[in-house]
């Protein structure tokens, strides 16, 4: 779900607000405030936190601050897209394996090496078992705000 939120810088800290639901979080770091807001919304709406995405309207009195946070927001969105791409790759591979294809056959269909398919599957297995380190996932993904 995508929520329109407002992020306002007062010179010392950020206030991130979901105006529609009258929920806000204040803190010195923008991304941490956004993550906290996502967690609160997930609890209120009883949905998984990874299903919350933000469309952010930034308010600050200095253009440099706006440029920086917009760049950070793009980076977080890129990380989210990479995570989704990784999940879809795994789903595609597992789906084809469920249809009886072998990893070498799947590699040929996708135009990648057999080793790449094996690496994707191994990373997905590690992620599911909780072995991978914090902030890392399949295909070098990083976690970000939702």
Q: How would you briefly describe this protein structure?
A:
The chain is of the alpha+beta class. The protein contains 4 helices and 4 strands, in the order βββαβααα. A 4-stranded mixed sheet has the order 3-2-1-4.
Describe the structure.
This protein has helices at 30-45, 63-98, 103-110, 114-129; strands at 2-9, 14-18, 23-27, 53-59. It is of the alpha+beta class and 146 residues long. The longest helix is centred in the middle third of the chain and has 36 residues, at 63-98. The radius of gyration is 19 Å and the shape is elongated. The N and C termini lie close together (10 Å).
List keywords for this structure.
146 residues; alpha+beta; four-stranded mixed beta sheet; elongated; disordered C terminus
Structural class, by secondary structure, is alpha+beta
Q: Tell me the β content.
A: 15-25%
Uncertain spans: 132-146
Overall residue-averaged pLDDT value: 82
Strand tally, please? Answer: 4
Radius of gyration, whole Å = 19 Å
Multimerization status: single chain
Topology pattern, helix = H, strand = E? EEEHEHHH
Distance between the amino and carboxyl termini: 10 Å
């Amino acid at each position: 779900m995508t929520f329109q939120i407002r992020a306002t810088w007062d010179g010392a800290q950020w206030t991130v607000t979901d105006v529609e639901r009258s929920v806000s979080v204040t803190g010195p770091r923008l991304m941490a405030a956004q993550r906290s807001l996502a967690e609160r919304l997930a609890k209120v709406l009883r949905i998984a936190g990874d299903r919350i995405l933000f469309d952010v309207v930034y308010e600050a009195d200095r253009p440099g601050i706006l440029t920086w946070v917009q760049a950070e927001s793009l980076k977080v969105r890129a990380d989210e897209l990479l995570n989704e791409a990784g999940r879809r790759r795994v789903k595609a591979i597992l789906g084809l394996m469920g249809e009886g294809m072998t990893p070498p056959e799947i590699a040929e269909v996708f135009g990648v090496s057999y080793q790449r398919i094996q690496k994707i599957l191994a990373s997905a297995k590690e992620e599911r078992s909780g072995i991978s380190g914090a902030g890392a996932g399949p295909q070098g993904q990083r976690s970000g705000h939702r």
